[in-house]
Design goal:
By secondary structure, the protein is of the alpha+beta class. It has one domain. Helices cover 31% and strands 15% of the residues. Strand 1 and strand 2 form a beta hairpin.
């Protein structure tokens, strides 16, 4: 897990990896009373090029 402090819309972002979106959701739900979240799925550049 990596955390970056940011300027702008968000105060900080947390980048994490999980085997599936469901696994990520399980982790995020444990923090639901502490923070607001926005989840995005990221694909590495090389994989995105192969999808084209």
């Amino acid at each position: 897990m990596r955390v970056y402090w940011t300027l702008g819309r968000y105060d900080a972002i947390n980048i994490m990896e999980a085997p599936t979106e469901k696994d990520a959701m399980k982790i995020l739900l444990s923090f639901q009373h502490l923070v607001d979240t926005e989840t995005m799925v990221a694909v590495p550049r090389e994989e995105a090029i192969r999808l084209l």
